[in-house]
Amino acid sequence: MKRCVITGMGAITPIGNDVDSFWDGLKNGVCGIDYIKKFDAENFKAKVAAEIKDFDAEKYVPKKELKRNDMFSIYGVAAACQAYDMSGLDSEKIDHDRFGVIVGSGIGGLSTMEEQILKLGEKGPSKVSPLFIPMTIGNMAAGNIALKFGAKGICSSIVTACATGTNCIGEAYRNIKHGYLDMCIAGGTEASICQIAVAGFSNLTALSTETDPKKACRPFDKERDGFVMGDGSGMLMLEELEHAQARGAKIYGEVVGYGATCDAYHVTAPSPDGEGAAKAMLMAMNEAGITAEDVSYINAHGTGTHHNDIGETMAIKKAFGDTAYNVPVSSTKSMTGHLLGAAGAIEAIACICALQNDLIPPTIGYENKDEECDLDYVTEGVRAAKVNFALSNSLGFGGHNAVLCLKKWEA
What we know:
Layout: E1 4-12, H1 19-27, E2 34-35, E3 48-49, H2 63-66, H3 71-87, E4 99-104, H4 110-123, H5 132-136, H6 140-149, E5 155-156, H7 164-177, E6 183-190, H8 195-203, H9 213-216, E7 232-240, H10 241-246, E8 253-262, H11 275-288, E9 297-299, H12 306-320, E10 329-330, H13 333-336, H14 343-357, E11 359-360, E12 383-384, E13 389-396, E14 400-407
Parallel strand pairs: 4-5, 4-6, 9-10, 9-13
Antiparallel strand pairs: 1-7, 1-8, 2-3, 6-7, 8-14, 11-12, 13-14
C-alpha cells in the first residue's frame, strides 16, 4: 500500500482567507460569528452567521467568470489555488492522468437557486439565467478545479451533508493508498448563508437564536441552543509519499486512517448512543495501526446542538473507553461556525496545524458545564501539548459519520 501525505493546504474561512490567518485565528480564539449582513435578518429567528470577510475573488477567478459561478464554486477554486501553490507542483512535470479532484458541497449553489427561483416567479421563465444549472449543481466546484489545473484523473463530488469534506478527503486518501492516483485535491466548499437556508434550518430548530454573536455557538456548554451557519472552503493537496519525495516537496502531515459509517437511525438526529460515530473512529484508528492511547487530540464535530454534542460525547466514550477522559477535545466551530460541507475540510487543516505546532485550538464561549458532556473540551484557550495523532470527526444529516486520522510528519 502507498502512503498519503499532505503537501499543500488552502482555506477560505470566517476567521481568515488563507491557512496562516485561519490558524492564527484559531490559536487566538477569534470569533468569526457576527450579525448577518448578506440580507436583512430582522424577521428571521436566527440573526447571526459566520460570513466570509474581505475576500478578493479576482485573485483566483477572472472577473468575467465571477458572474458565471456561484460563490461555493469560487471559494472552492480559491482554496484549491492556495493548496496547489503551497505544494509547489510544476504542471509541466506531472502526469495529469494521475491527478484527481474529489471535492464536495453539502448544498451547492443555493444562493443562485434562491435568486433564480425568485426571478422565475417575478419575471417569467425566459429570464432565468442560462447558466442556472451549472451554477447550482454541487459537482461544479470539483469540475472547475479540475479545469483550472488540468486534473484528468478521477473527478468526483461526494455529498454527505456535514460529513462531505471529510468523506472527500478520506476517499482521496484511499485512491492514493491503493495506487490509483499520484496526487489529489480534496476537500469541501460551501456558500449557503442565504434567506431560504437560514429560514429552513431555523424552522428545523437547528440554528441558535442567541442574539449575542460571541455566545451563539457554544459547543458542549449546557446553555447551547443550536449551530451557527458558516461559509467558506478548505482544500488539501494529497500526494503519494514517494511522488512527493522525488520532487523534494515539503510535507505538512500524513493521512493514516479513515472511517465512514451510517447510523441508519434518523434523518437529522444522531444515534443517541453514539454507536455509528464510535465505529468510524475505531475504523480510522485501526487503519492507522494505533490505539486510543496514541491519540493526542480530537477535533470534534461539536456543532452546539443539544443532541449532537451529547451523542458525540457518548461516541468518544464508546470508542476510547476510559482513555476518553484523557484525550483533549475541542470544537473549532465555536470560532468558525458550521461550514456544513466544508466543515470537515477546514477542521482537517486545523488538525494538521495542531500536529505541526504542538498546539490544540480551544473551544471558545464555554461557560456552563453539562453533566452529560464531561470530557476535556479545552476551554481555557490554546493548549500546548505534544500532538502526534489527531482525529477529525464529522457527522452529517442522514446519519453519515466520517473520521480522519492524521499523523505528525517526521522525516
